[in-house]
Amino acid sequence: MAEPGSAGGSPEPPVQVSIILPVHNSECWLDECLKSVWEQDFKGTMELSIFNDASKDGSPEIIEKWKIRFEEVGVSVIIGTNNSSQPRGVGFAKNQAVIQSSGTYLCFLDSDDVMMPQRVRLQHQVAIQHPNSIIGCQVRREPLDSTERYTRWINNLSQEQLLTQVFTSHGPTVIMPTWFCSREWFFHVGRFDEGGKGVPEDLLFFYDHLQKGGGVLRVNHCLLLYRETIWNHRVRFLEDRVLSSWTSFTIWNAGKQGKKLYRSLSPANQKKVTAFCDVDEKKITKGFYTYEESEERPKPKIPVCHFRDATPPFVICVKLDMTGGAFETNLATLSLKEGKDYYHFN
Fold it and tell me: Is the N or C terminus of the chain more exposed, i.e. has fewer CB atoms within 10 Å?
């Protein structure tokens, strides 16, 4: 990335790209997100514009740590803050991050997502040729098995379908955390709606963009790891409110949902999982689940047992009212107290 300023006191060249990053209670993912900004292979001038919307966790400290690193290599970091007790919402935070930035082009990023190193470079190349367009990209979802149909849809739309399939319930045909556009065009369209919680600010902006004759393009490379945000927030809430006071526990469900929960836990809470339990004889006969994605050697192997042989407390990942009452009957036989011996996470 180019150093700002130049010899002889001549004015600094305008910043080519501003990374627009709204932050609210993002400490679980922020390090990885900012590292992905750091690893961009873009050779032009770049700045990072962060707006911290009333975070109550360790996000400000993580931001300050990375600010030092970025500025040591000549990438300026602009930090805005909402110091009130309540967040103003994503639309407000994104607008503030844009207003305080100065880049000719805007690269939007969510604080729980991760950019591939070539993202800014490849999208900038396209945006220069199409200054009145929103440029998106293909994405990879995490967890991998989340919203598979939606991911297929956004990754495989043809150029024509990016404009013809804008009426579906899926929303914008290029998803918000992949957006890249010119600053001039952003302000021509307007700003994000600041109505707050429940307002689909990205969809409303996207419609306004189309109404004003804007184009939609997609770089056909996977340039973003797009996380399932609501799931992540649920997991963190479970960890804060329940798992922090448990020294060990069992996950009830050795199938897809139970394993997904295990993979989403922090390393410290993964170590607290003593077993998965189930009623499926095939899973029980296998005897254990190997966490293949782990960097530990040997890879963790978590026992799988029958629910009657399992030790409470439980985090239950079985959907209620889906087994003709069989699951509810099994749970009742254990005479456990909800809120003490088990919690539902289904």
Answer: C
